[in-house]
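User: I'm putting together notes for a lab meeting next week and I want to include a structural view of one of the chains we've been expressing. I don't have a solved structure, so I'd like a prediction I can at least talk through. The sequence is below, exactly as it appears in our construct file.
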Amino acid sequence: MNQAKTIAITILLMLITLTAFAKEGKVQIVWPSAVDAVMYELEIARAPVKINTSAPQDQVVYTTTTIYTPGVELSLDLFKDYELNKLYYRVRPLDLDKKPVGNFSRPVALDKMILNPIKPMPTAKFKYSPAPLYPVYSWIPVLEAEGYEIEVTNHKPENPNGNLPSRYRVRSYNIEKGFDLYDLKAFNEDGNYYWRVIALDSARQPIGVYSDAIAFKVQKRGYKWAAFGDSITHGGGAISNPPSDPRFNYFYYLPFSVKNLGRSGDTAAMLVGRFEQDVLPFKPKYLLILGGTNSIREGSRAEDVIASLTVIKEKCLENGIRPIFLTVPPLNPERMQRVFNQSPAEKWQQELAKVNNFLKTQPDVIDIYSVLADEKGFLPVKYSQDGLHPDIAGKKVMGNCIKNYLKTYNIQ
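Assistant: Thanks for the context. Below is the predicted structure for the 412-residue chain, given as structure tokens.
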């Protein structure tokens, strides 16, 4: 063995040793997002544990049940008395009551994860197409970050792995602690865009560098189908999962592409107000319309919601768009009070029924209410953890209901 090779092997062994006994810094652990997980339980033990087996308590060195993203950063100081290559982590999804909704993952050695990451890990990858009109950017929280800056560019940033703004910047946002940002400005101009995020300290100075830039494309023409509505259309669910996870879109379960024109928080009147700017540029042939939930829960009269939906219908017909309404889904007051500290208006069920009775008189209406409501007319927990937004299980039911309707009436 020559001297150069010997030195290289020696350096490699030194690096492995330093990694195994790391005392400072942090480790970034990520895992696949689980179906309808509100939070995750993370367990780190001194020996690998089988998936369906409980870890001996004397083997567990760290555990937590308060992780709301499919990943976390931990200080290596927590494990200063251990060799990282002899520690193993596993996770399992939990519901709102911290009850498991899945098994623990297989154990993985902790030193296989990213040690001392210098950039955030994006979770909004926009791998599905087309991109939503109002994107939501999301990432794994950075340890000790006090805020974040999100940058959107119209070309791939010229300075990857840096902490300075790109010369191609077209939008930027600064927020406090969190793991997502809802863009309130529509993307209705053709182009190729990129988003990235950087962590900030208490002085609003960068922690590390920008994340990798995530591409998404905006195209105004060529859409046969679009979906228009509030947060139930926009996406997201199981309390902590943002719309950037496509599984929380009901049209994710349809056999064709749908342009997402949803915007979280919209009332029926707000949908009317943005129809021209947010629907007409895309010229869809069919428009799936789901609106009125926020209006009803906030106490609006059914007559006012019906008036707004009627205007939307008229605007569609005036512009050669075929409106296909979805009935307003039920709510669950107990869960809404628990999660949002807010209950729907006193007579929400009566007003919702009036709106749905009107919708059932329309030429094209898909009744999702009847397949989501329980015997009390509530949205059951199996379909929604927060009592307002259907989760993946609920969105699948909605998708199947739409597929059956379109097949029955041969709408293509």
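A couple of points you could mention at the meeting. Residues 3-20 form the longest helix (18 residues). The chain has ten helices and 20 strands.

User: Perfect, that's what I needed.
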